[in-house]
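We emphasize that the prediction below concerns an isolated chain of 620 residues; any contacts that depend on oligomerization or on bound cofactors are therefore not represented. The input was used exactly as deposited, without trimming of termini.
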Amino acid sequence: MTDRLLRGGLAACSALLLCLAPVPGRLTPLVAPVGAVGTTFPVSEIRRGQVGEGVTRMDDGERVTFKAHVLGVLDGVIGPKRQVILARLEGAGLEHTGVIAGMSGSPVYIDGRLVGAVAYSMGQFAKAPIAGITPIAEMVDATAATASQAPRTVSTLPLDTPLTADALRDAFLASIPGRGGVTLSPVALQGLGIDAVSSPVLRPIATPLSMGGFSGAIGSWLSDTLGTAGFAPVSAGSAVGRAAADPAPLQAGDAVGVSLVSGDLSLGATGTVTSVDGARVLAFGHPFFNLGPAQLPMTRARVVAVIPSLLNSIKLAQLGDVMGVMDQDRATAIAGTLGVTPRTIPMTVAMRANGSASRQFTFEVAEDQLFSPLIVFAAVANVLQSYQREVGASTIRLKGSADIGASTLRLDNVFGGDSAVTMAAASLAAPLSAVLRSDLGTPHIGRIALDVDTDERQRSTRLDRAWIAEPRPHAGDTVTLMVETRNFRSAPQMHRLRLPIPATATGPLQVQIIDGATLAQLEGRRRSLEQARSVDELVQLLNKARRGDRWYVRLTRSAAGSVINGHDLPALPGSVMQILGATPGVVTTTLDHDVLGEWELPADAVATGQRTLTLSPLAP
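Result of the prediction step, given as a token string:
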């Protein structure tokens, strides 16, 4: 596990069919026209001194009301031509807790007409619960755009280096839209001066992120990563069968969630419903992540308790059953449609720890090009960590597959050492990230199935010696390669491999014996995402990944050539290389050798080490 993880710094929820005669692909919505957007109170009628009434859920899901004393309207404070209604809240214990994280979206009414959603606060340590209310008109306007989902530009991850926890975290944070380095959570505020924390700057209320089942170093890593991104992580479990058991229709003031993973792990943001109009739901009053068009599961939620804090009072809420899809994530609101079945990634992990019986874990992961690699990484690593020691060397063997569009990604590798958990989890997260972040299309990620064996022992074998038995072979002969290896704390083993030399081979040849991990790094430098012209080609490239439980023996000779769209073309004339390099749409990388043959030496553990022998065959 990476140093960062060691420092503590890293039965799927089925959608409930709410109808007696379901229509395929849809859920029958539970709706009520409470707070319908047709009866609104415009900002032009707002005056200082007016008193509104707000609705939200508090301890044990109790529905409570509070007062909102209007202080005025702020123009352009959160963006050009954007307005925020400033109000002092009163009642429901807010005088003691201040504005609570999780209140985001709580509707406020004046004379029975909907004004907007509680969405902003005036910094931490405020002595009065001063809140900013997003006008309902701005929420409706921002989410009225088409719900069609288009690919987003996100930070890409190269294939030429192994994906680490830190690399995944950095790429995720680099893709945060519109954050501008401003973070909101207590974790993100560490290290800032007191003035930066307490200054009266209008900020979106931190969004609680309920985390259930995540623990240890991976839980800390995920909490830190998402906390830096502006969420407020809180410990919580799954509330399936509780939050969804309420037969009442969803209404304004109810708790609502946006799920990132459900099942044996639970992770998702929670807030409050502002309005329900037919099957259309508005909530939060500020962005979830400002993703624009999205397709994330929208769930019921249940507030378990309110945790008071001088720094950041917060609602501890549990996610419930899926009600529909959050299809718009905009600057002033999130919007969703009830009854629509979200598209998720079903994932299973069968794990055998240290020879014990197999344990089965199931998840439903939200399909999103930004979040999915991060969540898959954390889910796999968390399962491994929960049944594997965190400190000390270990060995992990992972097999499995992932359906990607019409192709299948194959996984089969072994990882060892102190970072085995991180590397095993990354071996799935890295190719998913490569596919989801490429510009080759947006394929649907289907079922992911993993089979994992762990061993709390250092199972490794190193390459000690290698030589050619025949001293002076001729071209066309078959030579014997002798390889001596040694397992960890075991006697040496001898391997023999017969290598045919091509009859046309001239000049010096090289026999390279190299472990899979090292060869993967060398080859990655000349095979990148850009060399694939389709998702299928990309998956084929990923399926060629070298394995860590073997050495690769390659017979090569020096020859100038190119790698064209991921395929080796050795010994090319210089004129051909120039033409290919100038051809539009062709991605080339220089190749300095020609592989005449390749063989494998399997190992029963993680293979390490490399040797290169020079062979000068005589003329036949």
